[in-house]
Amino acid sequence: MSEHSAIKVKDLVKHFGKGDSLVRVIEGASFEIQKGEVVALIAPSGAGKTTLLMMIGCVTEPTSGEIWLGEEMVYKDKWIAKDTRKIRREKIGFIFQAHYLIPFLNILENITLLPQANGVSKKDAEQKAMELLRYLEIDDKAYNMSSQLSGGQNQRVAIARALANNPEIILADEPTAALDGERAVSVIKMLKKIATEQNVAIITVTHDDRILPYCDRIMKIQDRAIVFE
Amino acid sequence: MINLAARDIKHTLGKFIVTAMGVGMLLGIVLIMIGVYRGMMVEAEILLNDIGADLWIVQENTLGPFAEASRVHEDLKDIIYVVSGIDKSEALTFQNIQLPGTLKPVRVVAVGFDIHGKFNPINPERLVAGRELKNDHYEIVVSDKTGFVLNDEIKLGRNFYRVVGVTAKTVSNGGDPLVYLSLKDAQELQFLYSNKEIQNNVARGVVNSESYMVNTIVAKVKDGFDIDEVAQEIRKWQHKSVYTANEQKDILTKNLIEKSAKQIGLFTVILIIVSTIIIALIIYTMTLEKMKEIAIMKLMGLPNSLIIEMIVKETLILGVFAFIFGNIFSHLTYDGFPKLVILQIPDAWALFGVVLVASVLASFVGVKKVISADPAAAIGG
What we know:
The complex is a heterodimer. By secondary structure, chain A is an alpha/beta fold. Chain A has helices spanning 49-56, 84-91, 107-117, 122-135, 151-163, 181-198; strands at residues 5-16, 23-34, 38-42, 64-69, 72-76, 92-95, 169-173, 201-205, 217-222, 225-228. The longest helix of chain A is centred in the last third of the chain and has 18 residues, at 181-198. Chain B is α+β, with helices and mostly antiparallel strands. Chain B has eleven helices and twelve strands. Chain B has helices at 4-11, 13-51, 76-81, 183-191, 195-204, 227-238, 245-256, 258-289, 291-300, 304-333, 345-372, and strands at residues 55-59, 72-73, 86-99, 106-113, 127-130, 139-143, 153-156, 159-167, 178-182, 213-214, 216-221, 240-244. In chain B, strands 1, 3, 4, 5, 6, 7, 8, 9, 11 and 12 form a ten-stranded mixed sheet that branches. A two-stranded antiparallel ribbon of chain B has the order 2-10. Chain B is elongated, with a radius of gyration of 30 Å. The two termini of chain B are 29 Å apart.
């Protein structure tokens, strides 16, 4: 595994159910994604995009295979990592279709929640959060509630939240689905900028052709296998 | 670390306060139920304490005069008086009667005593208007709960009685207001038949007058004498049942109030269980409403302990708020209850402890839901 590799997947298999009800979702997927790379994951609905994302994110347990995150092997036919939640907390940032900000926390608290849970002091977490908000040009909304922000602004806050812990990987599940064309392009440009400047590997599930030109590679799930365009 | 519970409560403050008020009313009723029990205990002892007797001498083999009917001769007081160790003795009557109230009849317990005697059941501290009884006939002192005021005329039996005094907080062990009459009037009221009935009885050859009877003789024991020994002496020679003040208190509190106390205790326990279930359901619903956020927090990698802390804290805060509202509710309403309700601080603290334990138990349903929440549920709408 190269030192630039952020994600490495080898012979990954995921089945649901048993016997007659067995569903084969992923069969022998192998690929590697480098730091700073933005990869689009496209496939028809039900093909296993989210399942693949959840396996890489240490949420869903694969059936067999290997997963490496950076230099750490987290899965080899069983979870090698003792605390998958800690892996998520420290290495991975998530961005969802909708922003899914916690409605009872203000913007700054939404961003600082995870770093504080990781032991970062409130002051340092807030300083980093303000930097991110400035970077994403919404620092004037730091003390607002998410209900007071537009969809695009909330999605930028969600990006800031995903970046708050200096993750090595960002897993995005259709981050532009709820946005209009202009805002969708703006978000993917922002993700591309983050990947380049902060050396973060990004996998983004998408059905949106408009954002594909901004991705470094396009990964497809075809007949339960992974292929790159 | 961000206090998630406080933020969540602040976000839905109105709903949270209304919920706490609802649970608080239940807890307020629990406090009032305990207060009713305390009131019963106090009411049971009002008359005993006001009379202040060491010994109660009643008809043999009875638990008189409160728990069972008892009749003894009035002159027994003189026989008791000469028993070694007796300082003073007096005859008393107790009788349930119904006064013709202004709006509806009032059920009372009439206490008859010799107004020139050595025991005065009217506690001067409880006399809030008028005076004590001065004349042997046709005067009555009433509890303010009867609704009568000074100089009212009340028809009782054959005669009219004028209200000369009003007392406060004077009730029998059953919670009925007390009225006080002279012994002669009380004996007439209890034992004297109507003229027609006397004529009828004479015709049948039945002895009529029992107006020299009373319900009990009370006595005070001289200093230096053992109350139990004096009581035993009277039992031995007078063929009467004799109860010390403590025994009489036991009869009133244990025998007469025990069932009511158990009933109130059971209601209290049921109400606490209902409150716990309601808190648990509220917390469960509040947790369900946050399942998406909980799944996101779990997906992001927040430890369960942080989310569980939020649920437990919210439940405890709900319990504390409900307890505060319960106290306010009980203090605003307790005076309106027909029976005496005594709210005591130790009872409130005990309930507070129970509420905290109940809240922690109630939070388990929410905690269980948190533990079982699937972080993958955060993705895919």
